[in-house]
């Protein structure tokens, strides 16, 4: 990078050490969540939502469980104004939900905002003005005192307008661009506003400290928050709020550490939608809490449905690797990962533990509406026997023996490699059916019958090509007798029958599935599977399938 020397750290450390937050290990409860999707999120869209879309999005936020929702900047446009009036006049705001509106510290904007708020049952009026060095010097060209005066005059006007307007109002102040502001000056501005509002237990106010532009590592932001928390006037009556953006990719970390440092409230959006790199993602924050066994107070039990509405209304896309919501975030393609997950899931079935601890899966995908089938283990050329076996067992009830899983795994990986594509579960099942199940060429099983001899002498009817004939064999059981008949009549030799069977379904119409492996003289293992309503017939079909594998591969080699 050629121009690195033109950059310098633009943030300001607190004037004293503020590191008490480092002694905390984790968040113990959910903060108050405020969705700013309909303001920060909406203003960042290429095509902002229309009235009907905003109403639908608002309903979704209510269903998720947000108790505070910023609905817009009513003085900014007619759509914003009409949206707020529609919510109030049509009584669409539940009694336990507080709406929030944004206003600059300018008289005509504040008065227009209260005109839009008339009759609101409960609303937060969010006042802001920029305080950073860059904004003071380059945009407003004002002194520190002039910036304080803007904030104080706005705070006074909010009080007067609230007294003159029908409704129930709470105040919030943000020193916008807080992260680029000298911390002692940010404190002075906030305390000046608090001196006007003089919050009480019955009438607390919100001080919001936004990372309007993320400028530091998360621990710096946390130290800034802690310093402000410990030095704000009327602190016991102040709700300390965060509003992190994601310019450095640390929005979630900023929010989590900021809560450890004393913040009680977080403003953010679903999936981090917002200007530039976006706002902090409340979905990630909430489900991070959930993964620690802490109720996030938001309902994300059906993430796919939420994503569907979100993508349709915003025209934005949740990326495949987005935490929790992305299509691939629970997916393992790697063989070793798949094997560990499959074994972990089996262990859960056997042990029924009280807490979740499956390898590679932070939370149970089913808790947020994801499915084990197709979401967790997906198959490509990097996959392993454990994952391929898991897919067959989960979706089709086929519990292959370990060595057969290995044999089939290599076969499937080879198919995926040559096709250069992921294989869907139905494709894997089709491959298994074609290569292993009830194989009838070159030797077709027709029927068998046993004699009354003690050595289980058995007569088997088979078809090879156009010829139907009977062959005979004896052994220590029917299957052994049929195996011996095949070896004798076909002039082949194998040893070590590996056998496994289980019911494929439950109930009176259940089918049985059998797996048989045979070992050739060179040590090669060949597998077959038989499926039939009769357990003995399924075993015979599995044996014929293995023998046919043996013959076909032997003939192709020679």
From TrEMBL:
The keyword Transferase applies. Belongs to the alpha-IPM synthase/homocitrate synthase family. LeuA type 2 subfamily. Pathway: Amino-acid biosynthesis; L-leucine biosynthesis; L-leucine from 3-methyl-2-oxobutanoate: step 1/4. Its cofactor is Mg(2+). It is found in: Cytoplasm. The keyword Aminoacyl-tRNA synthetase does not apply. PANTHER family: 2-ISOPROPYLMALATE SYNTHASE (PTHR46911:SF1), PTHR46911. Its EC number is 2.3.3.13. GO terms for molecular function: 2-isopropylmalate synthase activity. It catalyses: 3-methyl-2-oxobutanoate + acetyl-CoA + H2O = (2S)-2-isopropylmalate + CoA + H(+). Catalyzes the condensation of the acetyl group of acetyl-CoA with 3-methyl-2-oxobutanoate (2-ketoisovalerate) to form 3-carboxy-3-hydroxy-4-methylpentanoate (2-isopropylmalate). Pfam families: HMGL-like (PF00682), IPMS_D2 (PF22615), LeuA_dimer (PF08502). NCBIfam families: leuA_yeast, PRK03739.1. This is 2-isopropylmalate synthase. Residues 31-304 form the Pyruvate carboxyltransferase domain. It comes from Paenibacillus brevis. It comes from the Bacteria. Keywords: Acyltransferase, Amino-acid biosynthesis, Branched-chain amino acid biosynthesis, Cytoplasm, Leucine biosynthesis, Magnesium, Metal-binding, Transferase. Its main location: cytoplasm. Homodimer. Mg(2+) binds at residues 40, 243, 245, 279. It is an enzyme of class 2 (transferase). Residues 439-558 are annotated as: Regulatory domain.
């Amino acid at each position: 990078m050629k121009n690195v020397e033109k950059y310098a750290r633009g943030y300001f450390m607190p004037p004293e050490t503020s590191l008490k937050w480092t002694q905390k290990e984790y968040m113990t409860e959910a903060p108050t969540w405020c969705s700013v999707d309909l303001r920060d999120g909406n203003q960042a869209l290429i095509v902002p939502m229309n009235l009907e879309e905003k109403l639908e999005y608002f309903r979704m936020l209510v269903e998720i469980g947000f108790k505070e929702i910023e609905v817009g900047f009513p003085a900014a446009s007619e759509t914003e104004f009409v949206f707020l009036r529609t919510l109030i006049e049509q009584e669409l705001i539940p009694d336990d939900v507080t709406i929030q509106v944004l206003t600059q510290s300018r008289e005509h904007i504040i008065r227009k905002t209260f005109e839009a708020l008339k009759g609101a049952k409960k609303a937060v009026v969010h006042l802001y003005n920029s305080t950073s060095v860059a904004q003071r010097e380059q945009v407003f060209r004002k002194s520190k005192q002039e910036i304080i005066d803007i904030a104080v005059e706005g705070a006074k006007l909010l009080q007067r307008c609230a007294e003159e307007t029908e409704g129930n109002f709470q105040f919030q102040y943000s020193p916008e661009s807080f992260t680029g502001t000298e911390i002692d000056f940010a404190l002075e501005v906030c305390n000046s506003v608090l001196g006007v509002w003089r919050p009480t237990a019955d009438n607390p106010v919100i001080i919001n400290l936004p990372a309007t532009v993320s400028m530091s590592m998360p621990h710096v932001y946390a130290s800034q928050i802690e310093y402000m928390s410990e030095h704000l006037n009327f602190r016991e009556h102040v709700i300390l709020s965060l509003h992190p953006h994601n310019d450095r990719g640390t929005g979630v970390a900023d929010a989590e550490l900021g809560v450890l440092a004393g913040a009680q409230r977080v403003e953010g959006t679903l999936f981090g939608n917002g200007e530039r790199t976006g706002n902090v993602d409340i979905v990630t924050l909430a489900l991070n809490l959930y993964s620690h066994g802490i109720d996030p107070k938001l309902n994300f039990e059906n993430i796919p449905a939420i994503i569907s509405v979100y993508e349709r209304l915003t025209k934005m896309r949740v990326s495949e690797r987005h935490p929790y919501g992305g299509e691939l975030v629970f997916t393992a393609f790697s063989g070793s990962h798949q094997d560990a997950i499959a074994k972990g899931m089996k262990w859960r079935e056997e042990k029924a533990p009280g807490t979740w601890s499956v390898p590679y899966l932070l939370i149970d995908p089913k808790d947020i509406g994801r499915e084990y089938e197709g979401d967790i283990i997906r198959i490509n050329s990097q996959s392993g026997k454990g994952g391929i076996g898991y897919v067959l067992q989960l979706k089709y009830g086929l519990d292959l023996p370990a060595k057969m899983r290995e044999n089939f795994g290599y076969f499937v990986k080879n198919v995926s490699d040559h096709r250069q594509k992921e294989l869907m579960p139905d494709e894997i099942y089709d491959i298994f059916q074609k290569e292993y199940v009830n194989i009838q060429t070159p030797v077709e099983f027709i029927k068998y019958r046993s004699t009354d001899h003690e050595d289980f002498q058995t007569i088997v009817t088979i078809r090879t090509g156009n010829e139907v004939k009977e062959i005979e064999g004896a052994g220590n059981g029917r299957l052994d007798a049929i195996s011996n008949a095949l070896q004798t009549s076909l002039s082949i030799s194998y040893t070590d029958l590996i056998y496994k069977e289980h019911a494929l379904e439950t109930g009176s119409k259940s089918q049985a599935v059998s797996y048989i492996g045979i070992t050739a003289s060179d040590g090669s293992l060949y597998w077959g599977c038989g499926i039939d309503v009769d357990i003995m017939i399924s075993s015979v079909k599995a044996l014929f399938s293995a023998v046919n594998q043996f013959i076909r591969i032997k003939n192709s080699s020679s």
